[in-house]
Fold these 3 entries.
Entry 1:
Amino acid sequence: MAWAIKLWRSVKISFLAITVGTLLIACESLDVKPNPEAPENQKRETIFGQDGLTLGGERGRKDDSGSGGIGVNSFLWRATLDTISFMPINSADPFGGVIITDWHSPVETPDERFKMNIYILGRALRADGVRVSVFKQGRDASGQWNEAPVGENTSTDIENAILTRARQLRNETIEQ
């Protein structure tokens, strides 16, 4: 009786293996093309960029990303640091493209202070490649800092200054 059970299990396993094998062979002959718009087939952004982590510069690529081994466009990165050099930097992540400043009070207006979060959004030198968020606080009569409205075009003006500096840096590199 035990041998019959073992034989029955062997037959079931063999039948299952033959069925799965036949299905796999049948699927192989189908002319199925992957959908390039499906999420699993999209090119993914990584913190190391499309070439992975590069320590000795770029791997023979010739483009205007100016990435030079960091995760974002190096022209935008350097231009951002140049543009906000008057402010103390709280943190800077060249792989993620995030720069966060600390509060800064201009000498002309000691009762105001500003803080910025700058996001470099990719490896290309494009107009939409940088986003700036500006925060402003004002000191009241009791010496407490309170949120204050920021000028409507302040973020855009800083973004434009960064982009202008990035183009200058790129042009200087091309001329060399």
Note: The beta strands are 89-93, 98-101, 112-120, 130-139, 145-148.
Entry 2:
Amino acid sequence: MYKILFNRKKCTGCSYCCDILPQMWTLNNADGKADLFEATKVNEVFFTQITDNEYKQNFDISKICPSKVIQLKKL
């Protein structure tokens, strides 16, 4: 299992995450930033657990994110 950490405050809204994995990420029309489905917010960081199967695509997303606001941690 892994955990995604997402600093939404620093998101620029490029939508790469939403385009690659729309079942986990969506673009919020109100402010143009990404939202991570079913995430919990602690301070300014959202997080959620993902399976090993979801890791690869989210890892790829974290590498192409121009804001570098997505991190993955092994639990």
Note: The chain has two helices and six strands.
Entry 3:
Amino acid sequence: MKILAIAHDPGIDLGTYEDIVRAAGHELEYASFQQAIAPSQPLHEYGAVFILGGRAQVDQEDKHPWLVDEKRFIRAVQDKGMPTLGICFGGQLLAELNGAKVGPLSELEIGWFDLRVPEEIGVDPVFEANGNVKTLIWHQYAFETPPGAVTLARTDVASQAFRVGDHVWGVQFHPEISPSGLAEWFDFERGHAEIGEGLTRLMDEAPEHLEAVADSGGRLCEAFLRFAESRPQRAW
């Protein structure tokens, strides 16, 4: 398959997922509405879409006019039934477009957290391999689960994962994080006084958690790709 990743800020990419996508024999392409890099092919040429993190917020269309076109594109992707996985900001965009409240937390949620998976969710083809694990969470805005969607995980502070219908997933955490990616984020963010203490603690604890996060996050990516591969004749 040809896999499309919608990126935003430089330095925020698919991380460990790049190798997983390519090892599975798929072709990966990045596009970015923020950077005016359009997808090279018509939508029907892609088998799945990732929507990545970023430093914008979903309610900042005045500050970031490109959000208007990106939201229109995401609606088209979802309406056509294409397998879609949104990560952090990408998950927030999917939540908002499906009617959920997305807004600022009283304080930044940053660190290594345990996900709690509700027992009543049943079998989920993508998330069943990622429940009840520790993962990296780094966000100031948070989503609620959209109306009619299934909550797949949460922390004490916020919802962390949901599924809309049978082909759209949004996660608030970062299953794709790589050591080099985390180091780059640290270099960019460490001058921000409001997150300094939490960021220092996160980096101090990183060696203890990165391997387990890569393992559980990798299983999520592999399950998502298997799901996309298994979809019947696509109409999009």
Note: The two ends are 14 Å apart (CA to CA).
